[in-house]
Amino acid sequence: MKYMEGDDSVEGFLSTPQTLSMRTSREVEGVIRLLSLRPGASILDCPCGYGRHSIPLAKKGFQVLGSDINHEMLEAAHRNANGANGGGALTFALENMLELEHREQFDAVINMFLAFGFFDDERDNVRVLSNFFHALKPGGRFLLHTDVNVGRIVRGEYKFLERRQLRSGRSLEIVESFDKERKRLNGRWILVDSEGVREDLPPYSCRIYTGPEITGLCESVGFASVRIYGGWRGEELEDDSEEMIVVASKGE
Questions:
Q1: Could you give the CA distance from residue 96 to residue 132 in angstroms, rounded to a whole number?
Q2: 122 phi and psi angles, rounded to 5 deg
């Protein structure tokens, strides 16, 4: 589980250092706040990865389905859950977000930490967004979270090369570049041990959207209203915001 190891750094990914536990708590509380989730609400977390958000949300009493296409990630999610539902309900499902068949089943759908836009064909990204829309009950809300803000890239403030110390003892090198024409962030993670032995993880490429662009996509699949935030307390998105959070509502 190399990405799990790389996710758990001493510094975190923001300018203010945060442990993985601190980040998760902050994000989970932010999800609850920005979506105005009521006790017992049903949530689809897609992709859920190793359950970093699914598990604490279930512990808070929500009914959570964690969905992911990666067998290894889901196995880790099951191990991490360790039977802890905390009054809610927690299940995991092996699913392809391109093929989701849920219909009007959830009060909320969440897509966390740069997990949207990975398909080369933009029609596939729109299809995923449409699947999220159809999975929501009337009046439900969709939340998308990313740590890549185009404003910071334009201002030259986004870090395309950085190194973080991992709690495993290794370090993580992140090497990225931005393709302005295709509007895609291309990068790779490299794990480095104390003797300098390097382990490259698979490269990635992700379509990066501005606030107006993602608003237009959400409206194109049927969302009635879209709000864009620059922080988990509902701060306005600015060019120097380190995160972008989208909340789209489905009409009644």
A1: 12
A2: -60, -25
The answer to whether residues 53 and 45 touch, using CB atoms and an 8 Å cutoff, is yes
Q: Name the DSSP class of 251.
A: -
2 — pLDDT class (breaks 50, 70, 90) = confident
Q: Binning pLDDT at 50, 70 and 90, where does residue 26 land?
A: very high
58 in Cβ contact with 88 (< 8 Å): yes
11, 167 Cβ separation under 8 angstroms: no
Average pLDDT over residues 216-243: 97
Find tokens 């969302």 and name the residue. 223
Secondary element (H or E) of residue 158: none
How many CA atoms lie within 13 Å of 249's alpha carbon, on the beta-carbon side? 12
Chosen CATH of 2-148+210-249 out of 3.40.50.150, 3.40.20.10, 3.40.50.360, 3.40.190.10: 3.40.50.150
pLDDT (0 to 100) of residue 1: 67
CA angle 55, 58, 125 (to 5 degrees): 70
Strand stretches in the chain, DSSP E: 42-45, 63-68, 89-94, 106-111, 136-146, 161-165, 171-179, 184-192, 198-200, 204-207, 225-229, 244-249
* pLDDT the model gives residue 87: 62
Domain positions in the chain are 2-148+210-249, 151-205
* pLDDT category of residue 3 using cuts at 50, 70 and 90: confident
pTM exceeds cut of 0.90: yes
Report the distance separating Cα 150 and Cα 16, nearest Å: 20
Q: Taking each helix axis as running N to C, give the angle between helix 211-220 and helix 122-135, from 0 to 180 degrees, rounded to the nearest 10.
A: 60
